[in-house]
Design a protein that fits this description.
Largest sheet: 4 strands, antiparallel
CATH class of the largest domain: Alpha Beta
Radius of gyration: 19 Å
CATH superfamily of the largest domain: P-loop containing nucleotide triphosphate hydrolases
Order of helices and strands: EEHEEHHHHH
CATH topology of the largest domain: Rossmann fold
Strand order of the largest sheet: 2-1-3-4
Distance between the termini: 50 Å
Shape: globular
Number of strands: 4
Length: about 180
């Protein structure tokens, strides 16, 4: 039986940070493959490059001081490092997502969690009756998502079940809560 082609293939990935003190080689020659149905866990000490590897895949490394200086990141045969900013935005959140370690730095405490998650989904799968733009956390914004002009009521969006291996107790409550709650 032949193995399926990798969904993600990384070859000789190198991401460096250029500082006044010199060059920090945060990722220096990473090679990995992930095939359909496989799960890969990056394990290492603090500062070993796990997060920078993930940020590099999505081209989210802060530049400056960081820069992907070499390698290939092939997703379904397309080199993500050669995509335009518009093309990589289409990949982010739709085909590849990252769950950041620190929610206080990735979620805006002014907006409800559900609104922020919904905004990402609507970026790739627009719904005709829901405006994707989030509103500040006010009583009105807590009551319902923003309606598109001409819409009579908020549509029922089909719930997305949590993966079996990711514990998500009471997702409905979490979606309507503030990130800092």
């Amino acid at each position: 039986m032949t193995r399926p082609e990798p969904l993600l293939r990384i070859h000789d990935l190198r991401t460096h940070f250029f500082t006044e003190s010199g060059v920090a080689k945060a990722v220096d020659g990473v090679d990995l493959e992930i095939r359909p149905g496989e799960v890969l866990g990056l394990v290492g000490e603090s500062g070993s490059g796990k997060s920078v590897t993930a940020l590099s895949i999505l081209r989210l490394v802060p530049d400056p001081p960081g820069r992907i200086v070499g390698g290939e990141i092939l997703f379904r045969g397309r080199d993500l490092l050669k995509l335009s900013w518009e093309e990589i935005r289409d990949v982010r959140g739709k085909d590849i997502s990252m769950i950041f370690q620190e929610p206080m730095t990735s979620l805006n405490p002014v907006f409800r969690v559900g609104r922020q998650v919904m905004e990402i989904i609507l970026e790739h799968e627009p719904h005709p009756l829901v405006e994707p733009t989030a509103e500040p956390d006010t009583k009105a914004s807590r009551a319902a998502p923003a309606l598109a002009p001409g819409a009579e009521k908020v549509p029922e969006l089909a719930p997305v079940p949590a993966p079996a291996l990711v514990p998500a107790p009471a997702p409905e409550r979490a979606a309507s809560s503030a990130p800092h709650a």
